[in-house]
Amino acid sequence: MSKNLALLQKKYKDLKGTYLNNQFREVELLLYILISVILGIIQCMQIDYNATHNIRGYLSHVQSSIVILMAFRFGYLGLSIALVLILAETVFIVVEYFMSFNNYLLLGLTLKLFTILVTSFIAVLTARQEVQKKKLEQLAITDELTGAYNQRFFHMILESEIDKAQKSKSSVSLIMIDIDNFKMYNDIYGHDCGDSILKSTASILSEILDEGCYLCRYGGDEFAIVFANAQIDNLQQMANELRKEFERLKQTYFRHDLCEKVTLSIGLSEYPNMSRNKNELIYQADTALYHAKNLGKDKVHLYQDALMQIRKNISSDHQQLIGIFKGLLSTISAKDKYTHGHCERVSAYAVLIAEAMELSLKEISIIQYAGLLHDIGKVEMPKHILNKKEELNDEEMSYLRQHPVYSENILEPLGDMDKLTDYVRHHHEKFDGTGYPDGLKGEEISLGARILCVADSFDAMVSDRPYSKSMTMEHAFSELEKNAGTQFDPEIVKVFIKAMKSYAA
Question: Where does the HD-GYP domain start and stop, copy by copy (predicted)?
Answer without folding.
Answer: 317-505
